[in-house]
Amino acid sequence: MVTDIWEMKQQQSSLETTSLKSASKASVAKTSETIHVRLPIHGMDSFTALLIVKTPPTWMRKPTNVDIADGGRIVIECQASGDPPPQTTWKKIVDGTSTPILSSDRQTSFVIQAVSVKDSGVYQCEAINSEGSISAVFQVHVKGS
């Protein structure tokens, strides 16, 4: 029987095969979400295995500081990828304490329709899944009229 060992590592949101031992006739087919590995097995032509790779969140769009006039509209993007897909939580930080203001599995933007000076401050976007978490802190500065 052929013994095969796959070692995978994450390289900026893509997977790279680092070693495959004892499988000179192995074939690999990668789709967007899975990797199918076909290996020769004693007594069989081939064997198909499904390899599911879970990854911690990584930034696709990271929020940045915002300067805006009183009454303006802001849209702040915060998008992360990972498997399973991360949940995004938006928080406002006041006196060192963070208060959640929005949490979503799908929402990647935070919108304030008509900002006022009271919306000025430090905010945080956090993306979390079962494999890890990332966060980014940004400032909103609203200029009074």
Number of helices: 0
What is the CATH homology-level superfamily of the largest domain?
A: Immunoglobulins
Terminal-residue CA separation: 77 Å
Structural class: mainly beta
Uncertain segments = 1-24
Mean pLDDT: 76
Fraction of helical residues: under 10%
CATH class value of the largest domain:
Mainly Beta
Observed structural traits:
disordered N terminus; mainly beta; 145 residues; three-stranded antiparallel sheet
Report on the structure:
The chain is mostly beta strands and 145 residues long. It folds into 2 domains: 5-53, no CATH class; 56-143, Immunoglobulins (Immunoglobulin-like). It is 0% helix and 66% strand. The protein has strands at residues 5-11, 14-21, 27-30, 35-41, 44-51, 55-61, 66-69, 74-77, 79-83, 87-94, 97-104, 109-112, 121-129, 132-143. A 5-stranded mixed beta sheet has the order 7-14-13-10-11, with no helix packed on it. Strands 3-4-5 form a 3-stranded antiparallel beta sheet, with no helix packed on it. It starts with a strand and ends with a strand. The model is unreliable at 1-24 (pLDDT under 50).
